[in-house]
Design goal:
The complex is a heterodimer of chains A (about 850) and B (about 130).
Chain A (H helix, E strand, L loop, with lengths): L8 E6 L3 H12 L6 E6 L21 H4 L6 H4 L3 E3 L4 E5 L4 E4 L2 E4 L2 E4 L3 E3 L12 E3 L3 H12 L3 E5 L3 H12 L3 E5 L12 H12 L4 E3 L4 E6 L5 E5 L4 E4 L1 E4 L3 E3 L2 H5 L10 E3 L10 E3 L4 E3 L7 H15 L13 E5 L2 E7 L10 E7 L4 E7 L6 E7 L5 H9 L32 E3 L4 E2 H9 L5 H8 L9 H14 L16 H11 L4 H8 L12 H13 L14 H4 L3 E2 L5 E3 L10 H13 L3 E4 L5 E6 L4 H10 L12 E6 L13 H12 L8 E6 L13 E6 L2 E6 L11 E7 L1 H18 L6 H7 L3 H9 L7 H13 L4 H6 L2 H4 L17 E4 L2 E4 L1
Parallel strand pairs in A: 1-2, 1-7, 2-3, 7-19, 9-16, 10-11, 10-16, 11-12, 18-20, 32-33, 33-34
Antiparallel strand pairs in A: 4-5, 5-6, 8-17, 13-14, 14-15, 21-22, 22-25, 23-24, 24-25, 26-27, 28-29, 29-31, 30-31, 34-35, 35-36, 37-38
Helix pairs in contact in A: 1-8, 10-12, 11-21, 13-15, 20-23
Chain B lengths: L14 E8 L7 E9 L2 E9 L7 E5 L1 E2 L4 E2 L5 E5 L2 E5 L6 E3 L15 E2 L1 E4 L2 E7 L2
Antiparallel strand pairs in B: 1-12, 2-3, 3-4, 4-10, 5-6, 7-8, 8-9, 11-12
The chains are: A alpha/beta (about 850), B mainly beta (about 130).
The complex binds flavin-adenine dinucleotide.
Chain lengths: ~850, ~130
């Protein structure tokens, strides 16, 4: 292993956490794999994962879905990743790092070892069921301990402590928070804010004890532990989680003699270089200008600067803003800049307190009242974005700065998007500026969803959602886009409004709709925008055969001929293969049809078979043979339910925990024929290994020991989007109920040709809102959505079988009305044993 | 890109009316394709039928010059800015049914032919061979 390659330098990264991984990504992006052979050591057994969203592990996300990259990312870029292998020493004299498994030479070395939770030196702190909250393994331990516990205590009332308290509450423990300081979140809020925070958190049933110093932990009476405080008061609990701050994991650096900060941390300069120029440090282990940055954003900035340093680039780390916006136990807390006002001599303050609504806001401004130096928010973070813009861009404050924190009838006065300079940061997680947003719009993004997918803005913590929306709206408007939401010149309505009209008035044809509700200036023919959109709405509502005389002129050519037109005017044919399960006889029948009509044959990603090159006039014969063999149409041509991909599940697989094929068949047979604003793809996986790739589908279902986890709004394709976990451990009936409601709600509210992923990005209120509507039935439409779905399901008929029964419909399948000649323009050639367009 | 051929100013003497098909071969508010013989050889036309409209019948090239495929009859019929049009089913350009001009690129034009009903027959006017 200890070979040094003559042509490449060896670069070793210690730590595969968030920042260490980001460094690797930056190095790859800068082509550093050309110059370096890279080895990464990670002490944890998991590939780098999203620690910021660690708590979602308790909500059902697993290590794989929290992972920051695909499992083959490192190998793909020729980077050696050595997990479960901690570095135990650095030998600077020989330029080697040491592990239990060997010694590895380095030319350059990066420390990205992060930090560890500080456990106060209290006698008894090493008892069983005394735990911390930092890694996936910590969470496994907490979950296991919680099974035998009824009460839990978190020591430490800071950001992470409150997050841990929320997790304990979620594990159904009676929870208390014990804080040494006189208030919660002493770093972020002052005493008044802390008092409000306490009230709010106590009202959630979490006990808050401040000014408590634990003296010792011993055996309890009623519970497992007894905590004894400075005044001899006691608290009994089964489980203790320490969250009393973090400390840099700087032991390696200290032992090898690098320059250290007084209170720990590896000293780095603006290039992230330590006192040994061969060694860099990034993330929570690094001390810059006497500060440790305990947030991921600054860590990412260091990683970027380090990647530049290692590749002779010109980018330095110049400190980072520690402003944060959080929702802890459902309570908004925001802190900007010098929130306490104790770092800015001469600063002036404004404060607003509402004890009824439980809101508190504070502004720290410069002595002349012109600049915002800091702000503090408790109870309502809607003020954050605007304040943050004043702060980070140094904008001049309005005449009366207090107006920025006083309640107004319209909520916080928004800083007009046009007032922001191009350089203003909109999304700090992904470092997206207003200029980047404008560029994406200039490059063709025409709605919020597209901008989010293009720039990644608002896809991290999501805190900038409202600001991003206002910038996008403003920019679109100033470019003359989108102001008119009408679907086209024939209807002064959006798709959603047309859907409502059709539903409410029970309109069943396009001609009736355009007659009653169309614009008066047109000839009433409609166009290629509104006709297919209305056809889709009518089908979603009433599910009449699309080839009926009144519907056929509305359809795109693919729907008209119930096949997919290819570039040379021929069609491809895709019969339904529910769940990807097919008998040998049906497979043979498919082969025979393909052979007889000389169709090019290819397996699709949706686990079925695509037959290409069919001429229009052959389609009915081809379909008669397929239907005789037991097939149904696959709707591959429609904006409709496409496929339900599945793995074999518990029937065959050693790992499967549920019958995924059975569920896939059930889902596919229920929703086949459902038309929607865009195509719908589903998948069912039989265990968390997720072989069916359900998390890239509009609706994904993953089996658990106890039932099914439901994921929604994923997408593969050009702009991949992970589906989001929507509900866990559902029984079959509830699963179908939620999918019914979800799909019908999407059909009701989406724009035309809007996939669920983009629809979700544009949905005001996001996933929480969607859950409220579907799971908690907050709009009171749950049953209505279900019955509308049932109507579509009940009216299902294979539309090819329907057309084959009707000679009038079949007349349409002639290439020419006055001649049986085939189209001479269609010329094919042979390649790899099949025919393809010449 | 232009495949337009300039039509001679029509006089009845120059054209002959041929039967293409019958009314029931047509699809209301949509198109069908047919073969014709022209002075330049066989050609494919797309026939559109808009019952109840001022002009009920249109015939334009079936060949889509952008996609180089014979598909125009399978496009969606509509009206844009008050003019009946057909949208190419492949790349969605709009062609005016009246004169074949492409709205997105006016240098491109489909050929057009006069068409009419004679009783149940659909007749097309073709320049004399
Ligand atoms: C519950 C929780 C919630 C959080 N929420 C937020 C938030 O909302 N916003 C925010 O900005 N930040 C948040 N953070 C902080 C954020 O996670 C950290 O800032 C970030 O993870 C720091 O990245 P890092 O790479 O420096 O350290 P880490 O992510 O801790 O990674 C260091 C890695 O190095 C490994 N390692 C250490 N020593 C060795 C060794 N000798 N050999 C090999 N490997 C080693 C460790 O095992 C670890 O995997 C949160 C943290 C937690 C725990």
């Amino acid at each position: 292993m200890n070979i040094s390659h003559s042509d490449k330098q060896q670069l070793i990264v210690i730590g595969n956490g968030m920042v260490g991984h980001h460094l690797v990504e930056q190095l790859v992006e800068r082509g550093a794999t050309e110059a370096y052979r890279i080895i990464v050591f990670g002490e944890e057994r998991h590939l780098a994962y999203d620690r910021v969203h660690l708590s979602e592990y308790f909500a059902g996300r697993d290590a794989e879905s929290l992972a920051l990259c695909a499992s083959d990312y490192y190998a793909e870029h020729g980077i050696e990743l050595r997990l479960s292998e901690a570095v135990t020493g650095i030998d600077r004299d020989n330029g080697e790092v040491v592990t239990d498994k060997g010694r590895y030479a380095y030319d350059r070395l990066v420390l990205a070892t992060g930090s560890y939770p500080f456990v106060p030196p209290i006698p008894g702190n090493d008892r069983p069921n005394c735990l911390v909250y930092r890694t996936l393994e910590d969470l496994d331990a907490i979950r296991a301990a919680a099974e035998k516990a009824t009460t839990g205590v978190v020591v430490g009332g800071g950001l992470l402590g409150l997050e841990a308290a929320n997790a304990l509450r979620g594990l159904n423990l009676d929870t208390a928070v014990v804080e040494f300081a006189p208030r919660l979140m002493p770093m972020q809020v002052d005493s008044e804010g802390g008092e409000l925070l306490r009230e709010k958190i106590e009202s959630l049933g979490v006990q808050v004890l401040t000014e408590r110093a634990t003296q010792r932990i011993e055996d309890g009476g009623a519970s497992f532990h007894r905590m004894v405080f400075q005044d001899d008061k006691v608290l009994e609990t089964d489980l203790i989680v320490f969250s009393a701050g973090i400390r840099p994991r700087d032991e390696l650096a200290r032992e090898c003699g690098l320059e250290m900060g007084e209170r720990g941390g590896v000293v780095i300069d603006d290039h992230c270089l330590t006192s040994d120029p061969a060694i860099l440090a990034v993330g929570e282990v690094a001390l810059w200008n006497n500060s440790i940055f305990g947030l991921v954003g600054p860590g990412y900035q260091m990683a970027k600067a380090a990647a530049y340093t290692l590749t002779q680039g010109e980018l330095t780390f110049r400190g980072a803003d520690m402003s944060t916006k959080l929702k802890l136990l459902g309570v908004d807390v925001g802190s900007i800049g010098d929130a306490h006002g104790d770092r800015s001599p001469g600063a002036r303050m404004f404060r607003y307190l509402d004890q009824i609504k439980q809101e508190y806001r504070k502004l720290v401004v410069s002595s002349d009242g012109k600049k915002l130096l800091g702000a503090m928010l408790v109870g309502d973070n809607s003020y954050y974005d605007t304040l943050m813009q004043y702060y980070s861009n140094g904008l001049e404050l309005p005449e009366d700065p207090a107006s920025l924190i006083l309640p107004s009838t319209e909520g916080a006065p928004a800083l007009g998007a046009d007032a922001l300079p191009e350089t203003a940061t909109i999304c700090s997680c992904h470092n997206v500026t207003k200029g980047d947003v404008c560029a994406s719009i200039d490059a063709g993004c025409t709605d919020l969803g597209a901008v989010k997918l293009e720039t990644k803005a608002s896809t991290g913590c999501g805190g900038c959602a409202a600001l991003l929306k206002s910038v996008v709206d403003h920019e679109l408007e100033s470019r003359g886009v989108e102001v008119d939401k009408s679907i086209c010149e024939h209807f002064a309505y959006t798709r959603q409004e047309l859907y409502g009209i059709v539903r409410v008035e029970g309109i069943k044809t396009f001609s009736e709709l355009i007659e009653k509700h169309g614009s008066s200036q047109t000839q009433g023919l409609g166009c290629d925008i509104c006709k297919p959109a209305v056809a889709s709405i009518l089908a979603s509502c009433f599910n009449e055969p699309i080839t009926d005389a009144s519907h056929i002129p509305l359809q795109d050519t693919n729907d008209t001929f119930m096949a997919n037109m290819q570039k040379n005017g021929t069609y491809s044919v895709v019969p339904r293969v529910p769940g990807g399960e097919i008998t040998p006889d049906k497979l043979i029948a498919l082969g025979e049809v393909a052979k007889k009509y000389q169709l090019y044959t290819k397996i699709t990603g949706g686990q079925r078979v695509d037959l290409f090159g069919a001429q229009l006039h052959d389609l009915p014969d081809i379909w008669q043979e397929l239907i005789d063999a037991g097939f149904e149409t696959g709707h591959a041509y429609g904006k409709a339910t496409r496929t339900v991909k599945s793995c074999v599940g518990s029937t065959w697989c050693r790992y499967g925990v549920q019958d995924s094929v059975g569920m896939a068949l059930h889902i596919e047979n229920r929703y086949k024929g459902l038309r929607s604003p865009h195509k719908l793809k589903f998948a069912v996986s039989g265990c968390t290994r997720e072989c069916a790739e359900a998390q890239s589908k509009d609706v994904g279902v993953i089996a658990t020991e106890n039932g099914w986890n439901l994921y929604v709004c994923g997408n593969g394709g050009m702009r991949p989007r992970h589906a989001e976990l929507f509900a866990t451990d559902l029984d079959d009936e509830t699963l179908i109920k939620y999918i019914d409601r979800f799909l019908m709600f999407y059909i009701r509210t989406a724009d035309r040709l809007q996939r669920t992923s983009v629809w979700r990005e544009n949905l005001d209120g996001g996933l929480d809102y969607l859950k409220d509507v579907i799971i908690h039935d907050s709009l009171g439409i749950g049953e209505e959505l279900e019955s509308q779905m049932q109507e579509v399901v009940d009216r299902y008929e294979c539309e090819w079988a329907n057309a084959l029964k009707d000679p009038a419909k079949l007349k349409r399948f002639r290439s020419y009305v006055n001649d049986d000649r085939p189209d001479p323009n269609i010329i094919v050639t042979e390649e790899r044993g099949q025919l393809r367009p010449a | 890109m232009s495949t337009a051929t300039v039509l001679k100013t029509e006089t009845e003497a120059d054209v002959s009316w041929q039967t293409l098909c019958i009314k029931s071969d047509l699809v209301a508010f949509s198109g069908v394709a047919a073969w014709i013989e022209t002075a330049e050889g066989p050609a494919q036309v797309a026939l559109f039928y808009l019952p109840g409209h001022e002009t009920e019948l249109y015939a334009v090239d079936h060949h889509d010059p952008f996609a180089n495929a014979n598909v125009i009859a399978r496009g969606i019929v509509g009206d844009l800015k008050g003019q009946p049009v057909v949208a190419s089913p492949i790349y969605k350009q709009h062609f005016r049914l009246k004169d074949g001009v492409c709205l997105e690129d006016e240098s491109v034009q489909l050929r057009t032919w006069p068409v009419r009903f004679e009783g149940d027959q659909v007749m097309i006017a073709i320049e004399a061979l």
